[in-house]
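Feature request, filed as a ticket because there's no other form

It would be nice if the structure record came with a short human-readable summary line next to the tokens. Right now we just get the raw output. Example of a typical job, pasted below so the devs can see what we mean:
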Amino acid sequence: MNDSKSNMPKVVAIGGGTGLSTMLRGLKKKSIDLTAIVTVADNGGGSGTLRQELGMLPPGDVRNCIQALSNAEPTLTALLGYRFAEGSLKGQSLGNLILAALNGMYENFDEAVVTLSKVLAITGRVLPVTNENVQLCAEFTDAREIVGECEIAEYKKGSDARIRRVWLSPEKPKPVEACLQALAEADLIVLGPGSLYTSVLPNLLVEGIPEAIHASKAMKLYNMNLMTQDGETEAYSAADHIRALFDHGGEGLFDRVLINNLPIPDEMLPSYAAEGAYPTVVSEEELHTLGVRPSYAPIARWEAGLIRHNPDALADAIMALYYSEGADRVRGR
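Raw output as currently delivered:
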């Protein structure tokens, strides 16, 4: 490692889905040593088809992160996200198929990911949290147990029951060793944003991952979701999100939470409300009771009817918080 990189703060981002890749697009522009740890529990869409037909890990979330961090020719990067519109490949992205081919060439999925990352000259690195073929399972408050990420979301949409707990099958799969090393060396660990039960929490169900986060001397931050999510977190407050993370990853998993304070226009809300999704309600009293301190920043944006995190504003807020509070604490460890 060269001197300039060795002096950079080491940042580990944990999650999956569009939330993680959105954040990575902003963080890649910062002078940091960046590692993304990505869930592999997805069983829907093109990823689910490849998983079922080839017995491989779902490539979609990993591919999104590689795209977000790519420094290759824009056309080549765009090709990764190209989806076939017809025929037997309908719904598949070219990037998923390339990862499927590389997976067939190498012994483990993480080796395939490293190879594609090199081809696309990505900033930082992307790591699947485990190489084991896992399924996400959930127990609901009505005592029903459901297997499969997509099946969990579908059951939740048709039920008033809340998710009580989630786990992986097989339970406590072995982590990719590089994930544990990255967490041990981190100066800043960031969880989310992203779907609570299907993007963030599955990473905490892999053996050794929550223990490595707790043991780390890094500053630990959770990015609060902007909205509740149909099929996962209807009527969840900010504190409910954090309780779920602590229930699965241990009390005190992190002690800071970053929350959007940019008002969302009223005209953006009806389409979300029709699906039971609303802006996440924050009670500072509840957060302090949980031992978590909130920080606020204007980190939202909206376009094409969608409310999303702003990649650049989110990255700015994360690093500003680190340099104002976390850097001195980490350097003094």
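Something like this underneath would help us a lot:
Residues 3-39+129-133+174-327 form a domain with the Rossmann fold fold (CATH 3.40.50.10680).
The chain has 15 helices and twelve strands.
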